Amino acid sequence: MAKIDRRIVKSQEAIKKAVVELMAEKPFDDITIQEIADRANVNRGTVYLHYTDKYDLLDKLIEEHMDNLRQLCREAADLTFEEGNYIWYEYFERHQLFFFDDAVKQRGAVFPQSVFAAGDRGIQAGCRHVKRKKQRAE
């Protein structure tokens, strides 16, 4: 099995983190590859080495989150409904800047619109519930 180059992983993580941070500051369509590269502290060419364009980057991020959510489903299979929801709400809370961005919602073919259409308030309420529960536990 080929060894994964940590520099590549580090660059990809920095690029993904940079685009999510920028999405919190401005609309996705206004973000440039140069801004992503600058924020990630990599060259523009490095971004293009890993992603064909910013939409490919967004799709890869959505795909990564979907894989994580599928894994959460497998892990939650033996939990009660409330325990399973707690795991989901916690995940959505950690990644809410990403999930509630309009550009992510528009990529509905990848991430079902129904999660957002009916669930925004429910998910956000669940996230608040998780936050309160954490604060009480501390």
Rg calculated over all Cα atoms = 17 Å
By helix and strand content, what is the structural category? mainly alpha
> How do the helices and strands follow one another from N- to C-terminus?
HHHHHHHHH
**How many E-type strands?**
0
Give the tally of structural domains. 2
Q: Give the uncertain stretches in residue-range form.
A: none
Q: Name the beta content range.
A: under 5%
- Gross geometry: globular
Count of helix runs: 9
N- to C-terminal distance: 43 Å
Tell me the major beta sheet: none
Mean pLDDT: 78
Percent helix range: over 70%
How would you summarize what this structure contains?
With 138 residues, the chain is mainly alpha-helical. Helices cover 75% and strands 0% of the residues.
Description of the structure:
By secondary structure, this protein is mainly alpha-helical. It has two domains: about 1-50, Homeodomain-like (Arc Repressor Mutant, subunit A), CATH 1.10.10.60; about 60-138, no CATH class. Helix content is about 75%, strand content about 0%. It has nine helices and no strands. Helix 1 crosses helix 2 (about 35-40), helix 2 crosses helix 3 and helix 4 runs antiparallel to helix 5. It is globular and about 45 Å long. The termini are far apart. The mean pLDDT is about 80.
